[in-house]
């Protein structure tokens, strides 16, 4: 677990320290965090989404349910497996954190559900993700048809 110093009564940021800080919980960030953790490092993982997965393995909202007839695709299966592996690991995954500043010495300033956080480590992996992957379908190029990235 990270070394933690909670926010004080004055509302200062909570501080967290790790051996490695990974920013971005898409496929690359998940694998970097899991690999470092398996090597014995204390790893912090920050992402602004509510769950790991990024654009490629985006976790469906809890309100979405697949019908009993529907079969998950390979990306859904891979994303679910990665989220299970991450949850079972020692990685301190901190979701719904928006990193707004990076400072020399590998310090990240983030805003999360409980306010400001300062996260530091002697090493950092930045895995900011990829562009949205659009799968073409009949009508996908018509005016007004947009991808998930444009809709969120």
Structural class: alpha/beta
Give start-end ranges of low-pLDDT stretches: none
Helix content: 10-25%
Whole-number radius of gyration?
A: 17 Å
User: Strand order across the biggest sheet?
Assistant: 1-2-8-7-6
Task: Characterise this structure.
With 152 residues, the protein is an alpha/beta fold. The protein has helices at residues 27-38, 74-88, 148-151, and strands at residues 3-5, 14-17, 20-23, 43-46, 92-94, 98-103, 107-112, 115-120, 124-126. The chain starts with a strand and ends with a helix. The mean pLDDT is 88.
How do the helices and strands line up, and which of them pair or pack?
Blueprint: E1 3-5, E2 14-17, E3 20-23, H1 27-38, E4 43-46, H2 74-88, E5 92-94, E6 98-103, E7 107-112, E8 115-120, E9 124-126, H3 148-151
Parallel strand pairs: 2-8, 3-4, 3-9, 4-5
Antiparallel strand pairs: 1-2, 6-7, 7-8
Helix pairs in contact: 1-2
Structural key phrases:
152 residues, 4-stranded parallel sheet, 9 strands, alpha/beta
Summarize the structure.
This protein is an alpha/beta fold and 152 residues long. It is built from 3 helices and 9 strands.
């Amino acid at each position: 677990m990270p070394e933690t110093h909670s926010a004080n009564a004055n509302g200062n940021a909570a501080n967290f320290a790790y051996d490695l800080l990974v920013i971005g919980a898409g496929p690359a960030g998940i694998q970097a965090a899991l690999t470092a953790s398996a090597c014995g490092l204390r790893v912090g993982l920050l992402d602004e989404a509510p769950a790991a997965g990024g654009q490629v393995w985006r976790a469906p909202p809890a309100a979405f349910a697949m019908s009993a007839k529907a079969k998950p695709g390979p990306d859904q299966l891979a994303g679910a497996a990665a989220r299970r592996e991450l949850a079972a690991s020692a990685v301190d995954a901190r979701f719904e954190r928006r990193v707004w500043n990076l400072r020399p010495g590998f310090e990240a300033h983030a805003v999360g559900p409980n306010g400001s956080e300062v996260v530091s480590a002697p090493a950092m992996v930045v895995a900011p993700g990829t562009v949205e992957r659009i799968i073409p379908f009949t009508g996908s190029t018509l005016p007004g048809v947009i991808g998930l990235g444009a809709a969120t």
